[in-house]
Amino acid sequence: MTDKPLAANIANELARERNREAAERTLMAWIRTALSLIGFGFGIGKLAAYLDKAGLHPAHDPPHTSLIFGTSFIVLGIVGLSAAIVQHVRVLKRLSQPDFAYDAMRPIAMTVAVLLMLVGVFGLFAMFW
Fold first, then answer.
1. Contact indicator for 6, 52 with CB cutoff of 8 Å
2. 3-class DSSP state for residue 97?
3. pLDDT tens digit sequence for 12-39
4. What CA dihedral angle connects 34, 37, 41 and 43, to 10 degrees?
5. From the centroid of its chain, how far is CA 36?
6. Domain count, the chain
7. Of the candidates 30, 29, 35, 18, which has an alpha carbon nearest to the alpha carbon of residue 84?
């Protein structure tokens, strides 16, 4: 008589463990993505600084669009990673509750994709301006 509740609890705990591991993998993916964005932005910023130092920066670029472009990648990486950390903590908190119920959260990837698209549009305008 005690076997059925025990089996159900084991199945529940295994499902929770899989969900915890999935949350960890998702956070690791966001760390890699944020690191790539930050590194790319840092590279653009360093390239802009090198061009300025060498005197190769165009004179008709007073706002230093490459610096703004690089900074936007860095900020996007920081914002994406911050949102991923908050989401990770929320998922772990929900998984620790005994009455876990699925609740869809805001998709961070869609938000970052839209912001990255805006950075791309800015880069496109900066190239032709």
1. no
2. coil
3. 788 888 988 999 999 999 999 999 999 9
4. 100
5. 10
6. 1
7. 30
